[in-house]
Amino acid sequence: MSKVLVTGGAGYIGSHTALALMETGYEVVVYDNLSTGRAEAVLPPARLVVGDLADTEQLDRLLAQEKFQAIFHFAGSIVVPESVENPLLYYQNNTNNTTELIRLAVHHAIPHFIFSSTAAVYGMPDTPCVTEKSPTNPINPYGRTKLISEWVLQDTAVAHNNFSFVILRYFNVAGADPLGRIGQSTPNATHLIKVASQAALKRRSALHIFGTDYDTPDGTCIRDYIHVTDLAKAHVLSLQYLEQGHASNIFNCGYGHGYSVREIIRAVQKVSQVDFPVIESPRRAGDPPVLVSDPTLIGQTMHWQGEHDDIHEIALSAYKWEMRL
Ligand SMILES: NC(=O)c1ccc[n+]([C@@H]2O[C@H](COP(=O)([O-])OP(=O)(O)OC[C@H]3O[C@@H](n4cnc5c(N)ncnc54)[C@H](O)[C@@H]3O)[C@@H](O)[C@H]2O)c1
Predict the structure, then answer these.
(1) Cβ neighbourhood burial of 122 (10 Å; 0-12, 13-18, 19+)
(2) 95 C-alpha vs ligand 1 centroid, how far in Å?
(3) Which of 44, 95, 102, 289 has its CA 20 to 30 A from that of 151?
């Protein structure tokens, strides 16, 4: 059985991926400082090692003791406005810590690295539907820290023949495990479907729409929402792709179609049967009107396809998880 390290595996996407890896037969060790993640999200038989990425001595010992075939690197700081207020935290946690982790992976001859990147690397694209070849032009520190990490990976793979990577650029991740075992538990998460679920449960007094005058059919921004379980599957396929000897590559992760903020609100109101109040607010800086993935490459290369591409299913799973919290 192949053993893999999942950094940030106590967090939202990392915990779903750890589950998918275990269900495929991999042995999983999670490394997480529990800053936003929760120990309960690490389901057995995965083992949790509590530690910070910056503690390279502990990481070094762990990588020396265990024979990992791959590192899945989710751990990081993910809130865009916070990255604007505190960029050095983001450069430290996302760029420096990722660089050190890649250095340790090479040092310990760990052959494969799967990295959580983001559609934020595209910034404000000219076209609504972006391919992996669309220009990267991140407009905030968060996106820049991720893009720099991508470059570190690419340069490292050129210099080290036995090191290969997959970079997955996620669009808007949403939903929860269909069996209700895990979900998004971060208390201050800013994701629309989670926040709408909190409004439906009266944990927020209202939901804000930021901008209703965009050039879209209903004036609100359109995004590509991918179910976290489909995204977890993309990670498993990425490792299998690398294990089969394929070349390092970058893949968009989304469904290729989007929903407006108003459509998402209606979906959450429908599944929760709660007509929570909505406040229309001015635009936020740096929100492109439409950001949708072109998922052709991941579909053709890894035969990935969304099995949960249904906005009501996504909203219902998120809402049910929110109720459990
Ligand atoms: N959620 C999204 O919609 C989305 C979109 C694009 C990209 N991503 C990327 O996916 C990854 C996972 O995001 P998520 O939504 O699961 O976030 P999350 O906050 O739920 O998970 C991050 C995990 O990393 C851990 N962590 C953070 N810094 C650490 C450190 N220094 N040492 C050890 N552990 C640390 C946290 O405790 C947490 O468990 C991130 O890299 C993020 O940039 C997320």
Answers:
(1) buried
(2) 13
(3) 289
Active site residue 142: yes
User: DSSP code of 281?
Assistant: E
Q: What is the pTM of this model?
A: 0.97
Quick count: other Cβ atoms within 10 Å of Cβ 158? 10
For ligand 1, whether the C-beta of 248 sits within 6 Å is: no
**Would you give per-residue pLDDT tens digits along the chain (325 residues)?**
799 999 999 999 999 999 999 999 999 999 999 999 999 999 999 999 999 999 999 999 999 999 999 999 999 999 998 999 999 999 999 999 999 999 999 999 999 999 999 999 999 998 989 999 999 999 999 999 999 999 999 999 999 999 999 999 999 999 999 999 999 998 788 899 999 999 999 999 999 999 999 999 999 999 999 999 999 999 999 999 999 999 999 999 999 999 999 999 999 999 999 999 999 999 988 888 999 999 999 999 999 999 999 999 999 999 999 999 8
Domains in the chain, CATH or no CATH each: 3-173+226-253 (3.40.50.720), 176-224+256-292+307-324 (3.90.25.10)
